[in-house]
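the three lines:
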Amino acid sequence: MNPTQLALCDEGDFGKQDLDYRLIGAVYNLCFWTSSREFYVYIPGDGINLALVDHHGKFKIYSDSCRGSSELRSRLRFTLGLDEDLSGFYSHARSDTIIGDFVEEYRGWRLRSTDLWWALVTAICQQNASFKQGWRILHNIVKAYDKHVLVNGALIPRPPTPSEVLSDPEKLLLAGAGYRARTILAVAKELARGSLSHERIEAMDAVEAERELMSIKGVGHYTARLSIALAMRKYELPPIDRWLRKIVSVAYGVDEKFVEEFWRKRWGKWSALAAIVTTVALDAEPLGKALERVRRRELLPKVEINPSPINMEGFCKPT
DNA sequence: TGCCAGGCGGGGT
DNA sequence: ACCCCGCATGGC
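prediction for all of em together
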């Protein structure tokens, strides 16, 4: 299969301000799409649109069609979270027991978003899996489908589309998805036949969107909420898994049964972002180690841990 | 080697 | 409204 050739469509400079593009590009990004001075990010929407962004905020947008080029730039801003005003979140988070240190130190970070399809696949891969296993599966899925775009002579991997996954579902198992494959396929089917779409979910509020996504078998609260956060930048519904539930319960002395209530009351419209930040601050270490980190107040990411959310290079290396 | 991990649904009470 | 179990897979 030939790679899709992309042409330069737009370029410019977003400016540095207080943003840390290195972090924006690195956090929870697979190794195909990051390097030491720049990163790639796919822009959700029609066609294939890929941006190359350097650590000073200079960007190039490559496209297969270059339709709506003026709009692409603002969609890229959204994808990078450049206009997300986190001051309310940070002013509150600064004094937080768990993520206080992180938000002081990593103030220039923003969450990158993805399209709904890839957000769902990402979230499904995390089901009943450690950080390492979940992201390894996702990495393996990209490799298994072996799809690329051609940009300036460089072959850049891209995620398979729902139809590509439907036409070769076996590759999900090859990638180690296990029983998660069934859920990924269910999502792919709905997206392919149009009963589910990024745009439709985007138009809903978080509660409606969650209900809609949960109508797909295999998509529960966690998967729906993480997807809504990653794809829509709507954070009011926190994806609370066993890991976060236990950590919050220990760190704040809240009964596990009331963690969700506690968390939503504490973080309000930032609940999902606070949950994601917690995983980054603790390097998404397995529960036992993460609890130990909280106990010892080691609440900043450790550069030597690889793979970790801030450095997923390790997944590209043979184990 | 088992055991189990950032879920989930189905089937019990 | 709960509790409990099985489930594919791979890491430890």
